Structures are given as C-alpha cells and as structure tokens.
Queue: 4 jobs
Job 1
Amino acid sequence: MFDSIVSSIRKRSRGDYEEVVFAAITDVRIWVQEHAERAALVFLAVGFLVPFFYKLILFLGAVVVLGGFIVWTVALPGSGTTTEKND
C-alpha cells in the first residue's frame, strides 16, 4: 500500500519539491501585488477567523508540517529529473 506512495514521492528529488513550494509562494506574492484590495480583505477575514478556529488551524498546520517532513525524508536528494544545467 505504501510502496506506491513512496515510489511516487521518490519520482521527484528534494530540489524539485523545493521548486514547487517556492513557485507557489511566488505565485501568492504576485497575486497579492496584483490584487492588493482583495488580498487585504482575504487576510483580514483570515485574521478574524484564526482566533475562532485556533485549534483546527493549529492541527492542520501540524499535519502540513508533518507531511512536508515525511516527503522531505522519503524523497532522495538526487532522485528524479532535475532542471539544473551545468554551464
């Protein structure tokens, strides 16, 4: 059961997962810059909801961190294809 999950994680290297995360962060930053008013409303709403759902948000954050740690541990440093070029 877990063999298919592990093999799908190992198809990419740690560097590939880093690129995916940093690309998502960059996309969010670009969206915030392009839609400042909407972003302000979204973050204001999130700021109001965080105290009400603190335990849920804390639990989900812990699950995300644990999942990221598992993927980082299972993914091999040099496995998969990399997009780096040696010039």
Job 2
Amino acid sequence: MIDGSATRTLILTLEANSDVARRCALLAEERGPDFAVRWLDAFSRWLTVLSADQLVIGTSHPFSDHARSFPYKRQATLLVEYTPTEMRIVRIYFAGQDWLA
C-alpha cells in the first residue's frame, strides 16, 4: 500500500539540467525571455507535482528495471529512474533532438 504522505525527492542529473538550459535558451531566442521563464516555471511545477506522488508512470526501459520514459505535453520525452525515495530525471529529449546526442 502506498502512503499518500510520502514523497520522492526530485533530482535532475547534470545532463537533464543541461537539456533544460538548452531548451530555455532556444525558447528565449525564438519566443522571448519572458516566455522561456514562464515555460520553465510550468515545467518545474509539473515535475514537482509528479515527484510528490508515489506512482511510477511511463513506459519501462528495456535495459533497466528502474528506468521509465514518458512525455511532457508532446514537447519532450523524459528518461526517469525511480527509487522508493527519488525521482531522478536522467535526460530530457525535445522534439527533433537526436537521442544518441
């Protein structure tokens, strides 16, 4: 049984932080800095809500029992590792991005 009061700690790897920074730079250039800040705020709030929930969502990864992937608003695919206490965002792949890069 899942305790509704339990939460996972949200962790973004250095690579995931770099993915977000590149996306924000692109959005700031294409749509303006205010839009980039609003996007980052919405994305951060969404991740915080997900990490507060003890559910494990996404499609299981073929090479890891703990890794899953799931989309963010048809804009990105997140690669996530779950433990009982952590939700670790490993990478964030945006539309048109090479998954091997």
Job 3
Amino acid sequence: MTNTRFTIQDFIIIDAESDPIPKIHIRELLDYPSYEFQSSKLSERQKLDVIETIGLEILTNVLHEYFQYKRATYNAVHEAQFTWLMMRKEMTLQSLKNAHAMGLDFLEKNKLKTFDE
C-alpha cells in the first residue's frame, strides 16, 4: 500500500513527510497492550491521524500478517478495534478535561460562580 505520505514495508509504516523520516511499527499503532504501543513517542492524536490517513482496515490486515508471521494466536481485528476505541476514549477524556479547565478559567476570569457555590 502506498499513498503520498505513508508507505508500508513489511510491518513498518514510513512517514515521508516527517524529518527525520520516522518508522512506525504496526504494533505502535494498533496493539494497545504491547511494549511498542505503550512506549511510543507518538501521541494518541498522531496515532489516530496515521490510522485515519491509511485506514483502520488496511492497518488491521498488516497487524494480522504480523501476528501470522510471529505465529501469535492474537486476533488482529479484536486488538485493532480495542486499541482504536481506547485511543478514542483517551482523546475524548482529554478534550473533556480541557473543556472543563477552560470553563473554570472563564468563570474565574469573569468572577462567576459555579452551581456548587
């Protein structure tokens, strides 16, 4: 699979628009419990951007091929969907925290009271 930004070689996604060109292992994107995912330098937003650009189905197939290559008995569809949902959850929670903090700042700045007060 090739597009203008990302190329997939074996189980590695190469981002041609970044400098230096990062190589992203498939487990870094779609295998939530893996070391690669947990230690990734990519944020959830960056991971989701890669997934949305390439496509969850295409990347799930790459993860499936990786599991077959490693003779792992994991279900790639389950792992990919679980990981995608966990990242979406984290992004939603972070957005809610940011909105809450912005709301509190607005109330404080305008000397307004919360319902609790």
Job 4
Amino acid sequence: MGVFKLRLVRPTKHIVLELTEGLPLMKGTWRRLVPDSNSSFQANAGEWENWVLGSPGGGQNIRLYDGSGTKSAVLKNYVTGTTSGKAEIILPGFGGDFGDEEFDWFV
C-alpha cells in the first residue's frame, strides 16, 4: 500500500492531500493535511478512484469523493505519468473556501 502527497493550487490558495492506495490500486482514501494547507474543501477526507470509463477523450482521471461518497472533483489525466495537470470541482459548493473554479494539481 502506497501513500503520496498531492498539492492542489490556485492563486494564493493551496490544499495538500494525502492519498493512500487501497486494493485494488485503482481506489483509495484521501485526507487534507491541515498544517500544510491554507484553504479547505467542504470535506476533509473521502475516497478516490482511477476513473477511465466516460472520461473525455479516453483520458485517465482521478475522481475525488466526499465523505458521503458523492462525486466531488476530477483530477484530469492524473495517471498518465505526468506530474501536474488541471482539475475541476464537479459538485457545486464542494470547493469551500478554496473555490469551485478550475485549478491545478502537482505531485
């Protein structure tokens, strides 16, 4: 089982998530690292999954789910071997004080 950090950024705001891989390696849990973040979502933890089916252009995306299992955000082209990319909030209001506009992610 692996654990890795992911930084979500927009001008003047950032959130650091810790993602833990589960079994199979296509799913896991995430949590916000409070001391490393200057902003927050409505949820501080949830689940993630590698979501291929239905992804625009056949890209591989990571979906973030809130604590109730509701689809909340998408990290676009996350598992294609790149170390950064674009992301979006898909559940209105989930962005909390981080905001619901498109943002960037970095490993």
